[in-house]
Amino acid sequence: MTITAYQQAQRQGQEAVRAAVLDAAKRLLIGAGPEALTVRRISAEVGCSTKVIYTLFGGKDGLSEALWLEGFARFERRLLAVPPDDDTLRRLHAGLALYREYALSESDYYRVMFQGAMPGFRPGEEAVRASKRTFQLLVRGVAACLEAGSLRGAEAVEIADVLWMAMHGAVSLEISGYFDRAEAERRYRLLCTSVLTPFLAPEERDTP
Fold this sequence. Notes:
Blueprint: H1 5-10, H2 14-32, H3 39-46, H4 50-57, H5 60-79, H6 88-105, H7 107-114, H8 125-148, H9 156-175, H10 181-196, H11 202-205
Helix pairs in contact: 2-3, 2-5, 3-4, 4-5, 5-6, 5-7, 5-8, 6-7, 6-8, 6-9, 6-10, 8-9, 9-10
């Protein structure tokens, strides 16, 4: 007898059921389009009753917001994995690399988060606040460089904004298939370095 995703997840608890539902919703959304994101289609994909989804998420709107937030939760975990480093600029570059790694490894979620994969969806205020935690990690990384003296010339938020604009454009093009993976990695490193160069302290510019 075939065991459904729901039955497998049940054995691991409610969080596993929730994750199974979100993964199924993501697959349907990306594979079949926004019109496939219905409670009935998702429940059939997972192998559970529609009641399970209503209980967990309250319906399609709640599920859509949960899908959006799941992307940011995974993004935050990836960015928090930056290893400790006394060199704040090197640590910032490590975080910028993890941004790209997340976008490539979780490209479906990235499209949900940043590329309007769910037309008409509008997250609630609390969800928006939760999503902004990821940007604050970037701001804190830049602020640490400013405090250490390796960056200068602008506020942390301004530099972080410019970095985010550049990174988002680069990874959006890459996950859309415009660049070869190896070439894109080199271009991405060059992009991040180029964006930060005007803000580097003179001694950092002289570092090989």
